[in-house]
């Protein structure tokens, strides 16, 4: 899907292993510390591109020949998120409450790439059967940019939990297709 100008959003493909590894390598420590779903290294890039597991949706934003953004949408439930949301009275369900994690290359952050990608990503999630998106691991309370981004999209806060700092749990309920 063409986003605007020369940006394209598409699902991750087997041939993306090298550009994805370059994308992971190029991320700053600050961005790495914010992104929790999996390690950001060559081995992980290769295994993500090799396997295609039902319910694990992964998208990349392409600019020229480079990957400049990477998004995870996972329909599988996680015990961690399920337990935290249950304590707020929300029973997350496997297959409909998708876990979500975004990342954008440092040089491209704050330039509208994630905002441009979201309408299509939300539509992909809806078509795959999602009724909500839940942040994978929540978002660190110090991650001002991400919190503003999520709130702009309509994500709501549902308490949170402590690691070495406070993390907000956030969820976006989706309109049916
Ligand atoms: C969070 C992230 C995915 C947002 O993507 P992005 O492409 O930089 O976001 P956009 O440029 O589309 O901005 C969207 C909104 O985010 C907020 N935002 C972005 N950068 C911001 C900043 N530096 N300070 C405050 N708000 C900011 C604004 O609300 C902005 O909307 P606006 O431009 O209408 O004001 C990206 O910054 C990122 O990858 N950060 C590092 C990894 C990370 O934190 N992942 C999320 C873990 S929970």
Structural class: alpha+beta
Strand fraction:
25-35%
How many domains comprise the coordinates? 1
Label the CATH architecture: 3-Layer(aba) Sandwich
Small-molecule components bound: coenzyme A
Number of helices: 6
Alpha-carbon distance between the two ends: 19 Å
Radius of gyration: 15 Å
Instruction: Provide the succession of SSEs.
Output: EEHHHEEHEHEEHEE
Describe this structure in words.
By secondary structure, the protein is an alpha+beta fold. The chain has a single domain (2-173), classed as Gcn5-related N-acetyltransferase (GNAT) (Aminopeptidase, 3-Layer(aba) Sandwich), CATH 3.40.630.30. The protein has six helices and nine strands. Strands 1, 2, 3, 4, 5, 6, 7, 8 and 9 form a nine-stranded mixed beta sheet that branches. Helix 1 (17-26) packs antiparallel against helix 3 (42-50). It binds coenzyme A.
């Amino acid at each position: 899907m063409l986003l605007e100008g020369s940006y394209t959003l598409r699902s991750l493909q087997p041939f993306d292993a090298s550009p994805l590894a370059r994308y992971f390598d190029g991320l700053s420590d600050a961005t790495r510390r914010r992104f929790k779903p999996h390690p950001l290294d060559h081995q992980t890039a290769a295994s993500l591109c090799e396997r295609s597991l039902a319910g694990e949706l992964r998208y990349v934003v392409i600019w020229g020949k480079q990957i400049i953004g990477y998004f995870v949408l996972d329909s599988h439930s996680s015990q961690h998120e399920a337990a935290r949301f249950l304590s707020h009275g929300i029973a997350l369900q496997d297959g409909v409450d998708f876990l979500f994690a975004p990342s954008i290359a440092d040089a491209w952050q704050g330039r509208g790439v994630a905002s441009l990608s979201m309408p299509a990503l939300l539509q992909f999630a809806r078509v795959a059967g999602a009724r909500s998106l839940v942040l994978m691991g929540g978002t660190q309370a110090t991650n001002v940019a991400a919190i503003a981004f999520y709130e702009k999209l309509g994500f709501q806060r549902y308490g949170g939990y402590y690691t070495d700092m406070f993390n907000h749990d956030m969820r976006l309920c989706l309109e049916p297709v």
